[in-house]
Amino acid sequence: MRFTRMTDLEFFRPRSLADLVNEYGEDLQKPPFIIPGILHNVSTVVYGQPKHGKSVWVCGMVKALVSGDSEFMGQPIHHDREWRVSFILSDGGAEREVVRDMAAMGLESKHHTSVLTYPGMPFTPEQWQVVADRVISDGCNLVVLDNFISLIEGNPNYTQDVNDWWNAAVRPFTLYGIPVIVVAHSSDKFAPGGEKGKTPAASFALTARTRWSVHVWRCGKDLETLAFTGKGQGHTDWEYWSNRDYGFTPAEKPVAGKPEKKDEKKSEKKKRDFEATRDMVRDWVLANGQGVSNKSEVARMVKTALNLDQTEVTIRQRLGDGGYGVHYAGNGKWYRKDSE
């Protein structure tokens, strides 16, 4: 352990590189991840919309750790200690859900997990240090804070408030070398495609402080999608199946790259529908519009004959700019646009 308390100022004194190497010792050889690409050995933020499976997924990961499993979701677990986990929860509702999930996983018979429920009162940094001391004295070496929005005292949209909370609630553990998982909500802002945002609430401050983040969202019945991002790391998406037995089976191998937007399929359909309408209007005008020089009249005839949803004004505009693939050459003559 590097420091005994967050309030110690001893580590501010200058120290030689040799002293630091000796102080860190074997810690320098530790890999950055407890579970490669999934759980960082310093801090991980797991976020998503309410009821999308964040806490259940975290509970499943904790089960794999404290049970001594060799892997989680197909990735090896780095067991450099016997894992003892402490959940620090925001309210009785969160406590009930965690107890239910952990009991369903059969962990009530294992003395490797403990629960501390937040009393719903403002915590000073000194009080958070007392909590940290208590958790550490119980022998816990992994902490889950669930959830960020309810635990923070202050405005989660203010960077300074988020930084103050992180320094008070997270750093007392990480300074002891204890990894921390922070469960948070997604931003309520809507993305350009109309879907809910895919960044955590207070995203800039949270993502700036954490080493790794996991976005959990439900994309189908019993099918979840995880998006992993981190400092200096690429972006990886991973779909997995969850079931009532709290199993998590990867649906496919991780795929690097940005997740496909949910509205892309709708855009493709919209494009196909427009192309079909364009071809239909083009063929009708070439067959029936010859000799009619008034574009407004042709637009009215097209709308009536083909029962289109577009207004006559829109149809006339698209006839005029070639949007339907036909071109008016004058004297009542219409030509296919690509055949001039």
Automatic annotation (TrEMBL):
It comes from the Bacteria. It comes from Micromonospora globbae. Residues 250-274 are annotated as: Disordered. This is Uncharacterized protein. InterPro entries: P-loop_NTPase. Residues 258-274 have a biased composition (Basic and acidic residues). Gene3D superfamilies: P-loop containing nucleotide triphosphate hydrolases (3.40.50.300).
